[in-house]
Specification:
mainly alpha; single chain; 365 residues; 16 helices; 0% strand
């Protein structure tokens, strides 16, 4: 028996290196797959933030440019506020006083009075713009005046200068179109106002006297164009009344903002201004009564009406002193005189009495 044939050969075991496990193959890409997923959002977020920042910067720049553009283009409302239309009532109240000495009244007299009012309205508006230009830095320190168009920045300096030129041209046209050489009160008013703006407003007492003189020039302008003989007592009454209002305004400024706002206030004290205001109020009342007695063109038999109008004038002065000294008002005389109910009722009654004294029929000889 063949042993080699009957006994099978031994099996040789050959070690074969194991193949890589699938888990190892799948584990290798995991860091590669995860890292891009973690990196991409961060990159996208950074890019988004950068884009948003750039967009925000562009928007802010555009907004700032738009704001500057709007500031360089003042609104018509701000330009009108610069002309102070609320102060034009002064011209309507003073210039037509020349009609008191004009009889009989006619359409020509009213038209000439309106022409005088127009001229002084243009002149006073020009003065307001020039004053606000000169005082813009000082007005920013005042609690109320800092809201004016130029001081607040709503109207630029360039726009105010252009408006000044336009007003000067309009006023020149007014003088040329009117009667020859009857515009000198307006020209004198402008000269005084220019001197006031250039330095006289810093001189105590002189500043208030110049303001009051401007109102007398309004009365003279009206009398010239109407052709009336101006009464000296009426001129003194207007001067003293406006001087009282100017002094009262300075007193209010001292109590509201101190002396730093207006250099001329260093020459005043509250006690000094109180004495001056009362003194000028007395002068106003006396000159008014003397005007009624000596110069007013009143109808015959109107002495009773004239006598009744004098207490109205005294009450008006007393009411203003009460508002100024007791209630600490007087910062804006126009608002005080035309918004106070007691003053309005008294002024209406006074106007009716004066109208009756002027329009009563003449008594037979």
């Amino acid at each position: 028996m063949d042993i080699t044939r009957s006994s099978p050969a031994p099996v040789r075991v050959v070690a074969v290196p194991p193949e890589p496990e699938p888990a190892d193959l799948t584990a290798l890409p995991e860091p590669i797959a995860v890292e891009p997923l973690q990196t991409l959002p961060a990159t996208a977020t950074t890019a988004t933030a950068t884009t948003a920042t750039a967009t925000s910067a562009i928007t802010t720049t555009a907004t700032a440019t738009d704001v500057r553009g709007r500031r360089n283009r003042p609104r018509p409302r701000d330009l009108l506020a610069l002309l102070r239309p609320g102060q034009w009532v002064k011209n309507l109240a003073v210039v037509p006083l020349a009609l008191l000495d004009t009889h009989p009244w006619g359409a020509a007299a009213f038209l000439r009075t309106g022409w005088a009012v127009l001229g002084f309205t243009l002149a006073s508006a020009l003065v307001y713009v020039v004053n606000d230009l000169a005082d813009r830095e000082r007005d920013r320190l005042h609690p109320v005046k800092r809201h004016r168009p130029i001081a607040s920045g709503r109207v630029s300096t360039l726009a105010a200068v252009v408006l000044t030129g336009a007003l000067a041209l309009a006023l020149t046209g007014w003088a040329v179109a009117g009667p020859a050489w009857q515009w000198w009160p307006t020209a004198l008013y402008l000269a005084l106002s220019l001197a006031y703006s250039q330095g006289l407003k810093h001189v105590p007492l002189v500043d208030a006297f110049i303001v009051a003189t401007g109102f007398v020039l309004r009365l003279v302008q009206g009398a010239l164009l109407v052709g009336a003989q101006m009464s000296e007592w009426l001129a003194l009454c207007v001067f003293s009344l406006c001087l009282m209002l100017a002094l009262g305004k300075r007193r209010h400024e001292m109590t509201a903002a101190g002396r730093a706002h207006r250099p001329a206030l260093r020459g005043y004290t509250l006690a000094f201004l109180d004495h001056l205001v009362v003194l000028v109020a007395v002068l106003t009342a006396v000159s008014y009564v003397l005007y009624l007695r000596d110069d007013a063109s009143l109808a015959a038999g109107a002495s009773l009406v004239t006598l009744l109008s004098a207490p109205c004038a005294v009450f008006g002065l007393a009411r203003y002193l009460q508002l100024l000294l007791v209630e600490e008002g007087g910062g804006n005389p126009v608002h005080v005189l035309f918004r106070d109910r007691a003053t309005l009722v008294n002024a209406a009654l006074w106007a009716v009495l004066v109208a009756l004294a002027l329009l009563l029929p003449q008594s037979p000889a």
